[in-house]
Each structure stands twice: as structure tokens, then as C-alpha cells.
């Protein structure tokens, strides 16, 4: 017999957080406030400094740590090892310049007010870090992660995330604790060793495991494996006193080497969204609203000083690396805030008696400034893009004529410009291959979405692109460009799968034309009856003939050309069977 029991503490805190956070974020969005800002506001309202709905911040903080970990994991998946290698000079050179320059300037300013040099350096380290969570979230929403500005911003963030390992170990030295330079060297050696091991595993073991799992096409097992790689790698790095966030990023790099990387992103993204929201709310909960209200001029002044220093330091890094003006300006604005890892560093300093800027209420001031700049972060990205757009014309010639030995910030060759007015083919069975061949012969732009490993092998062998994953996932649908497509085709799936695909297509794009194939005329009639599918054909070869003609008709291919394409495709190989494929 099941006995009634009180809710566990974590459930209580998360329930309050999610309900209140969702409500306040929704209300914020009605007034045109971005979701991230709404979550931060929600944290301020429900935290101890507000109405005090949340009692145990530590429990919420643990969930927030998972959010940061998943965010860095997804970044690692999108950031392949090849891309890291191409940007190595940028994040090593540019990142070092930006962090050292920011730390030096802030140290000099704080010391000028009579603060001792140890506290001044500590304050400079706090300011040198930018918000990986904010920047990645905004760049992903604007599809700018692999743009030139996104490349530079993310490269500098990677250096900062690596630097936090050394910073946390360096802080005790500032307070004359027992930690010595040898300890810092050992920790850095561990980090380098982990990176080397990850690169080896990423190139050998992980792709083989994921290919094996993908053949079985079990969503549950695939998701669990992806999460096991993420959490397992993060845990191993924590045992070696290395940041779990860095471990999660390295785990993402391992997955990025597999052909099913986009499918992995689609599976993990819902969890990442959930825990990332928890993270932003938890950051807002740290703010003491009473302190902020009574010291608003001080907070605003400090925030303006932080922005000025970070704009200057990032711009200098970009100029020294000879980047275009548009990239320099936009990247500087994107990184002009304080990051979530600064809170980790601040807690490490507090444990050894260091206070930000040596102020009596230094912690409250630091948290207020950091959260204020985080809240303004999404808007600084938009402003930076608008300013960069005005400068791009003057940079265009320099961009084309840039020498090969410069650290060019070119878009990732694995990324392509988003398609518009194209066809989305779901699945890669025998009929889908014929449809794709016809679209290619007719020069119709198209995207293939499939979880079938054979599709990935075909894409790798022929130089084509296949989006690996389930199109019902928001991330996969966005990758396929379903929102901007003209036609959607499902020609190798059973009726229930066709219906699901049609619903997803309609949700993203009400104007899209949905075409399908059915093995049985009765199934075809059922699919058309509900209005989800515009045109369904049946009866093997004749049906495929009609379906190709119908699809090409939506792209205004002349009838003679359509007939020629259909004949060429259907008479290439008549031996394909017609069994539905997943």
C-alpha cells in the first residue's frame, strides 16, 4: 500500500521556481522582454532578497550547475575538433590578450583607490570573465554561433572557461594560503592530459559506439547514452579537480565527431532548456533587492565601468589579431558583461577572505552589477549586430582579400546558409532516394531528415548533407528549415508516422504543402480526410511517378522537364522494394 509522504525538498523548491519563473517570464515576454531577462527578474522576485519563496538556494544551485553543464555540452557538440583547431590561434592569442588586459586594467583602477594589490588582482579576475550561458543562448537563438562574430566570441569564451581552472587555484595564493605554484602546475597538467585523452576517444571510440546505437534507432537508448557521455565525462574531470563545465564541453566535442551529432543535439536540447532556465532564475535569486534599490547609483556606475573596460580589452584583442571592424565591434559588445563562472571564483575568494574591490558590501555590489549586465546582455548583442551591419560594407574588401596566414574567422564549413522555399524529405528509404534524385536533377533545393545511419553514410560518401534526428524535435526541425520550406514529403513511413510528420510540418509552417505516399488506398484516403496532408498517392511505381511530378510542380518545373526527370529517376533502378522505413 502506498503511503502519503511529504514532497522532497528539491521537488518543492523546483516546483516553486518553475511555476513562478514561467509566470514571470511569460508576463515579461508580453512587454517585449527577452526570456533570459524574464528568468533573471523572476529569480530576483522569488529569492531571499525578494519575497523569499525559495528557502534553500543550494538545492536550486545544484540544478543550475546541471544547466550550465548541459549548455557547455551542447556547445561542444556544435564545436567540432576541427573547428577548435582552426580557431586555436584566436582563442589562445585573443583570449589571453583579453583576459590579461581586462585583469590588468581593473587591477590598476582598484589599486588607485588604495585597495591592496591582492584584492585588486582578485577583482580584476572576476571582471575578466564573460557569461558563456548568456552569449551562447542569444547567439543560438539568432543562429549566429558560427558567424564571424560568433566564432570570435565563442573562441574567447572557451579561453575564459579554461582559464577559470587556473584562476580558482590561483586565488588562495593571493591570500597567502598553502596552495603553491606547483599545485597550479599539476592542475593544469591534469587539464591538458584530460584534453589529450578526450581527443583520442573522440576520434576512435565514441563515433563507433554512436553509430552502433543509431542502427537500432532506439530513442531511449540513444538519449541515455548521450547523457551518460556528458555526465560521465564531467564526473571524471571533477575527480581530477577540473571544472565539470569543462568536462561537459569536452564530452560534447567527443559527440561532435560522430555523424549523429545533430540528432544528439535535438535529443538533449529540451533538457538543456529546462535546466538553463533554472540556472538563470538561480542567478537572479542571488541579488539582494534592498541593497540594489538603496545603492542603485553605485551599481550603475560600476556596471558602466565594467562595460568600458571589457569593450576596450576585447576590441584590442580583435585589432591585434587583425579582425574586421564589424567583428571587433560586435564581439566586444557581446562580451561586455560578467560571467557565471565569476560567481564560482567569487565564492573561492570569499572562503579565503577576499572581497570584490575590498568593499564592505563587495559581494552584494558584485552580484548586483553582474546580474544587471547579464540582463542587458541580450540587448547588447542586438545593438552590436546593428552597429556591425553599418561597418560591414567597409570591411567587405578586406574580408575577401585577407591573407591565408591570418586567423580568419570564416563560417564553419559544416554549416550552410539556411534554405528558403525548399523541399524537406523525411526519411531515406527507397522512395525517398528516388525523390531526392529527382529534386537534384531538377535543381530544386532540398533537405533530407533521417535517423537511418545509411543516410549518414550516403551523405558522407557523396558530399551531401543529411540532418540526423527526429524532425518532431524543435532543433531538428529548425536545422531542416521546416519553417521556411515550400514542400514537405514523407514517402517511406507508415501512416501514423506520416500523420505525425504532417502535424509537425503544419505547426511550423501552416502554408507548407505536405505530400505523402501510402501503401494502401484506404490509408491514403484517411490521411487526406483530416486535411493534414495535401496530396497522398498509392500503388507503387505509378504512385511514385505522380508524386515526383506533383512535388516538382510546386517548384514550377516545366512539364517536359518534369517528365524527363521522372523517367530518368524511375528507370535508373527498378529493383527497390517498398517496405516502410523508420
Strand content: under 5%
As residue ranges, the low-confidence spans are 395-415, 574-582
How large is the radius of gyration? 27 Å
Structural class: mainly alpha
Shape: elongated
- The string of secondary-structure elements, in order, is HHHHHHHHHHHHHHHHHEHEHEHEHEHEHH
Share of residues in helices: 55-70%
| Average pLDDT taken over every residue | 77
The neighbouring-strand order within the major sheet is 3-2-1-4-5-6
Number of helices: 24
How is this structure best described in words?
Residues 395-415 and 574-582 have low confidence and may be disordered. Helices cover 69% and strands 4% of the residues. It has a six-stranded parallel beta sheet, with helices on both faces. The chain has 582 residues and is mostly helical.
Topology:
Elements: H1 9-30, H2 35-46, H3 57-78, H4 81-86, H5 88-112, H6 117-128, H7 132-141, H8 148-174, H9 181-216, H10 219-239, H11 244-256, H12 261-285, H13 289-294, H14 296-320, H15 325-334, H16 341-351, H17 362-400, E1 423-426, H18 430-441, E2 446-450, H19 453-462, E3 466-468, H20 474-480, E4 487-490, H21 495-508, E5 513-517, H22 521-529, E6 535-537, H23 540-553, H24 559-570
Parallel strand pairs: 1-2, 1-4, 2-3, 4-5, 5-6
Helix pairs in contact: 1-2, 2-12, 2-17, 3-7, 3-11, 3-12, 5-6, 5-8, 5-14, 6-8, 6-16, 7-8, 7-17, 8-9, 8-15, 8-16, 9-10, 9-11, 10-11, 12-20, 14-15, 14-17, 15-17, 18-23, 18-24, 23-24
Write out key terms for the chains shown.
582 residues, mainly alpha, 24 helices, 69% helix
In brief:
The chain contains 24 helices and six strands.
Amino acid at each position: 500500500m502506498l503511503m502519503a509522504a511529504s514532497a522532497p525538498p528539491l521537488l518543492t523548491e523546483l516546483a516553486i521556481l518553475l511555476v513562478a519563473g514561467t509566470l514571470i517570464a511569460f508576463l515579461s515576454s508580453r512587454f517585449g522582454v527577452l526570456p533570459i531577462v524574464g528568468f533573471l527578474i523572476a529569480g530576483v522576485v522569488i529569492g531571499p532578497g525578494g519575497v523569499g519563496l525559495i528557502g534553500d538556494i543550494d538545492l536550486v544551485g545544484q540544478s543550475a550547475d546541471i544547466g550550465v553543464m548541459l549548455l557547455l555540452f551542447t556547445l561542444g557538440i556544435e564545436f567540432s575538433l576541427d573547428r577548435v583547431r582552426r580557431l586555436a590561434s584566436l582563442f589562445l592569442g585573443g583570449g589571453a590578450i583579453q583576459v590579461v588586459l581586462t585583469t590588468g586594467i581593473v587591477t590598476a583602477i582598484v589599486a588607485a583607490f588604495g585597495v591592496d594589490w591582492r584584492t585588486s588582482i582578485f577583482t580584476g579576475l572576476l571582471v575578466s570573465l564573460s557569461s558563456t550561458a548568456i552569449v551562447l543562448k542569444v547567439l543560438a537563438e539568432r543562429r549566429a554561433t558560427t558567424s564571424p562574430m560568433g566564432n570570435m566570441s565563442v573562441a574567447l569564451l572557451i579561453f575564459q572557461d579554461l582559464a577559470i581552472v587556473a584562476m580558482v587555484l590561483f586565488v588562495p595564493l593571493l591570500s597567502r594560503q598553502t596552495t603553491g605554484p606547483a599545485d597550479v602546475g599539476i592542475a593544469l597538467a591534469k587539464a591538458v592530459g584530460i584534453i589529450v585523452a578526450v581527443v583520442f576517444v573522440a576520434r576512435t571510440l565514441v563515433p563507433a559506439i554512436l553509430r552502433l546505437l543509431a542502427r537500432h534507432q532506439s530513442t531511449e537508448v540513444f538519449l541515455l547514452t548521450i547523457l551518460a557521455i556528458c555526465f560521465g565525462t564531467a564526473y571524471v574531470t571533477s575527480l581530477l579537480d577540473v571544472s565539470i563545465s569543462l568536462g561537459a564541453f569536452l564530452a560534447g566535442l567527443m559527440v561532435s565527431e560522430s555523424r549523429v551529432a545533430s540528432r544528439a543535439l535535438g535529443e538533449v536540447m529540451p533538457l538543456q532548456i529546462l535546466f538553463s532556465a533554472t540556472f538563470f532564475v538561480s542567478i537572479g535569486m542571488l541579488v539582494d533587492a534592498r541593497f540594489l534599490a538603496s545603492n542603485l547609483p553605485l551599481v550603475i556606475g560600476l556596471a558602466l565601468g565594467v562595460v568600458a573596460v571589457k569593450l576596450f580589452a576585447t576590441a584590442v584583442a580583435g585589432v591585434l589579431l587583425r579582425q574586421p571592424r564589424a567583428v571587433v565591434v560586435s564581439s566586444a559588445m557581446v562580451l561586455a558583461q560578467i560571467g557565471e563562472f565569476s560567481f564560482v571564483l567569487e565564492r573561492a575568494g570569499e572562503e579565503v577572505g577576499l572581497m570584490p574591490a575590498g568593499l564592505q558590501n563587495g559581494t552584494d555590489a558584485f552580484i548586483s552589477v553582474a546580474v544587471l549586465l547579464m540582463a542587458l546582455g541580450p540587448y547588447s548583442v542586438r545593438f552590436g549586430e546593428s552597429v556591425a551591419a553599418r561597418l560591414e560594407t567597409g570591411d567587405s574588401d578586406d574580408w575577401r582579400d585577407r591573407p591565408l596566414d591570418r586567423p580568419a574567422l570564416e563560417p564553419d564549413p559544416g554549416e550552410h546558409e539556411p534554405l528558403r522555399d525548399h523541399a524537406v524529405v523525411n526519411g531515406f528509404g527507397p522512395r525517398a532516394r528516388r525523390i531526392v534524385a529527382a529534386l537534384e536533377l531538377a535543381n530544386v533545393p532540398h533537405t533530407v531528415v533521417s535517423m537511418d545511419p545509411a543516410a549518414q553514410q550516403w551523405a558522407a560518401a557523396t558530399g551531401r548533407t543529411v540532418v540526423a534526428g527526429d524532425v518532431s524535435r524543435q532543433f531538428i526541425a529548425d536545422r531542416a528549415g521546416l519553417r521556411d520550406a515550400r514542400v514537405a514529403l514523407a514517402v517511406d513511413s507508415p501512416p501514423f508516422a506520416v500523420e505525425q510528420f504532417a502535424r509537425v510540418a503544419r505547426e511550423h509552417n501552416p502554408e507548407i504543402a505536405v505530400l505523402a505516399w501510402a501503401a494502401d488506398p484506404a490509408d491514403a484516403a484517411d490521411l487526406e480526410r483530416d486535411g493534414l496532408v495535401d496530396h497522398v498517392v498509392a500503388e507503387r511505381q505509378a504512385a511514385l511517378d505522380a508524386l515526383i511530378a506533383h512535388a516538382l510542380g510546386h517548384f514550377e518545373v516545366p512539364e517536359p522537364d518534369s517528365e524527363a526527370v521522372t523517367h530518368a529517376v524511375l528507370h535508373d533502378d527498378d529493383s527497390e522494394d517498398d517496405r516502410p522505413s523508420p
